[in-house]
Write a structure and sequence with these properties.
mainly alpha, two-stranded antiparallel sheet, 2 strands, 2% strand, disordered N terminus, disordered C terminus, membrane, DMT family transporter, Diverse_Substrate_Transporter
Length: 332
């Protein structure tokens, strides 16, 4: 799942621009969702051969940060004070938005289907609304309440509690932990200013996330491990570095860069709605690459969750941070 970055406020006034520009921007946004959706399938193929979530997250974010480091330095134009002024945001993005979300999501993917794990993480906006409601005692609007109820009903169907095949409860907890982590990240980044270039925020966050996972692994707090055994993708046996390269270059570097471009052209609110297609792409990729498809009742539940999130985001009275869009960010 991705972690998103903020787009400049002035762009919000005319998100689609001319017809040609609007079509191009939407295409970029869909490309971002498509490659972000690959992360679950790539990661699961590695996890099934002996990789741990700790190692997968560290290599994914560390490799992507190295690729983006030079463009990020250029984007700074020597204004290193921007990094110093936003160090808290960088730490929050890296520790919560990158390390936390990715680690929890990968652990969920290890025990659940890719689609179900991502749907659980996408409950973050609903959790945010429930928290705002409980903390402020201010009743949300009808769209928000309807969206929350639809998402909760969808969650029940996704978990298929009355079905013959039981969903791994530990995997569900990992997925919900990813959702909580994503919700916290949104609240934190909503308070930042706009002085830090989005590419610098993404690169710095990835470096922090990679270092965090390496330290936790080196000290024995989290298990580490990798394997050079071949993996199976789309029915073909291939080398382990193929999904690893795809995880770094496609579902991280390309996904973040196109996500930033889309957010700038469309505005954060429109981009956040388009990013919901990531769930559809993730299910499609899991079916094509892993022969993995949620059961029909889970697909219906997934549709309800997406509908619920759409309603919540459409309600400007919901109290959600207006300048934050879902993935960037890391929900996969």
């Amino acid at each position: 799942m991705r972690r998103s970055v903020q787009s400049p406020r002035p762009r919000e006034r005319n998100p689609l621009g001319s017809s040609g520009q609007g079509t191009s921007a939407l295409a970029v946004a869909l490309l971002s969702s498509a490659v972000f959706g690959l992360s679950g399938s790539f990661a699961k193929s590695l996890l099934e051969t002996g990789w741990t979530s700790t190692t997968a997250v560290a290599v994914r974010m560390g490799g992507a940060a190295l690729v983006l480091l030079v463009p990020a330095v250029i984007a700074l134009h020597g204004r290193w004070h921007q990094v110093r002024d936003n160090w808290k945001t960088l730490l929050a993005f890296g520790f919560i938005g990158v390390a936390g979300c990715q680690f929890f999501y990968f652990n969920a993917v290890e025990r659940l289907s890719v689609g179900v794990a991502l749907l659980l993480e996408f409950l973050a906006p609903v959790l945010m609304v429930l928290w705002i409601w409980a903390s402020t005692r201010r009743r949300p609007g009808g769209k928000t309440i309807g969206g929350a109820l639809a998402a909760i009903a969808g969650l029940v169907l996704v978990l298929d509690v009355t079905g013959d095949v039981r969903v791994d409860p530990i995997g569900v907890l990992w997925g919900l932990a990813a959702a909580v982590c994503l919700a916290i990240y949104f609240f934190i980044t909503a308070r930042q200013n706009d002085s830090l270039p989005p590419l610098v925020l993404a690169t710095g966050g990835m470096l922090v996330g990679a270092v965090t996972m390496l330290l936790l692994g080196a000290t024995g707090v989290l298990p580490t491990g990798f394997s050079t055994d071949d993996v199976v993708l789309a029915g073909f046996v291939t080398s382990w570095w193929v999904p690893l390269a795809g995880l770094v270059l496609l579902s991280t570097v390309l996904a973040y860069v196109t996500g930033i471009v889309a957010a700038r052209r469309l505005g954060s609110r429109v981009a956040s709605f388009v990013s919901l297609t990531e769930v559809l792409f993730a299910v499609l990729w899991a079916w094509l690459l892993l022969s993995e498809l949620p059961r029909p009742i889970q697909l219906v539940g997934g549709a309800l969750i997406v509908l619920g999130v759409i309603l919540v985001r459409a309600d400007k009275r919901a109290g959600l941070p207006g300048e934050v869009s879902v993935d960037p960010g890391p929900t996969a």
